[in-house]
Amino acid sequence: MAPPPPLMEELEEEVLLRFPPQDPALLVRAALVCKRWLRLVSGPAFRRRFRDLHRTPPMLGFLCNLVEDGSMSCFVQAAGAFRPPRAGLYQCLALDARHGRVLLQRPGSSEDALVIWDPISGEKLELSTPVPRRYAHNWTAAVLCAAGATCDHLDCHRGPFLVVVVYVGSSVYGKVFICTYSSDAGTWSEPVTKELPLDFVRFLGSVLVENALYFGFPFRKSLLKYDLESREISVIGVPHTLSKWRHVVLDGGLALATYMNPNSAFGGRLVLKKMRGGHKTWSLSLRHSSLGMPSWPHVMWLASQMV
Predict the structure, then answer these.
(1) What sections of the sequence does the record tag as coiled-coil (predicted)?
(2) How far apart are CA 251 and CA 175, in angstroms?
(3) What's the pLDDT at 181?
(4) With 0-12 CB in 10 A as exposed, 13-18 as middle and 19+ as buried, what is 7?
(5) pLDDT mean for each 10 residues of the chain (307 residues)
């Protein structure tokens, strides 16, 4: 009996496009079957169609800071056999991740250098911080695509980017100052400053909503908003009834995730409050009951999954 005729290349591509994105190793194995499939899978047209079809990128893993006082970040696999090249992050601390890039701090280097890491290609770029650490009480940073709303962020990890560093001054200075690095210009901007009481900006990370970055002040229960276009700094209050909270993105807008009634016999509730009315009020958007008594990191993981 004669062997069946081979599938048309167009049909083969349609089959390969439907491989589950949660396990990228499957496409690697498919590329090893024959030269034709290797050419299909590695071509830019296939990658573009694959991204357009599946849209939301899968979670391939996450970074965990093993020692908060400064020494090691570890990549934890969450899907298949994916592991980034050059994933050894000894003496690096993860600060932020967005739009295909990871922002690391290298505490042992001069003035705590920042490292921009592309986990797909393995490329790393080191930046010196614009303000010596000795002039700041504490600080944090965020990384993002420079194209803003004009980009769909499906494949911009090789394009221009911005790094925003937020410093909280010492008690002598009593102010917040923000500097922005542009990869296009290759330089840091002049600092933007605002008089604010002291707080720790390091603990809660950053959230990007539209054209603004939000950083959390946990002790004074407020959010620092930095408008990337106007370069203006403003402060948004958080309800004082919330003991533990974190800012998140909900339906494209700013929201707060909090855990209420943790000691209840019926379990606590994960509550999401969304900002409405031009940063004037927080209103209830979602309540998930009977969560038991999870730790706070667990609550944050569940909040991110629900959002």
Answers:
(1) none
(2) 33
(3) 94
(4) exposed
(5) 70 88 83 89 86 77 67 70 66 83 76 80 83 70 86 77 86 75 91 80 83 86 89 85 76 78 54 70 62 47 41
Q: Which residues 6+ apart lie within 8 Å of 297 measured at CB?
A: none
Q: Which residue has the tokens 């739009």?
A: 99
Q: Is 87 exposed, middle or buried (0-12, 13-18, 19+ CB in 10 A)?
A: middle
Amino acid at residue number 200: F
Interatomic CA distance for residues 181 and 143, integer angstroms: 9
**pLDDT at residue 142 in the model:** 93
- Global confidence as pTM: 0.76
Neighbours of 167 (CB within 10 A): 26
Phi, psi at residue 269, to the nearest 5°? -130, 135
- Token pair listed for 179: 């500097």
The three state secondary structure string of the chain is: CCCCCCCCHHHHHHHHHCCCCCCCHHHHHHHCCCHHHHHHHHCHHHHHHHHHHHCCCCCCEEEEEEECCCCEEEEEECCCCCCCCCCCCECCEEEEEECCEEEEEECCCCCCEEEEECCCCCCEEEECCCCCHHHEEEEEEEEEECCHHHCCCCCCCCCCEEEEEEEEECCCCCEEEEEEEECCCCEECCCEEEECCCCCCCCCCEEEECCEEEEEECCCCEEEEEECCCCCEEEEECCCCCCCEEEEEECCEEEEEEEECCCCCCCCEEEEEEEECCCCEEEEEEEECCCCCCCHHHHHHHHHHHC
Are 114 and 124 in contact, with CB atoms under 8 Å apart? no
What is the identity of the amino acid at 31?
A
Amino acid at 303: A
Output the six-digit token pair for 89: 């992050």
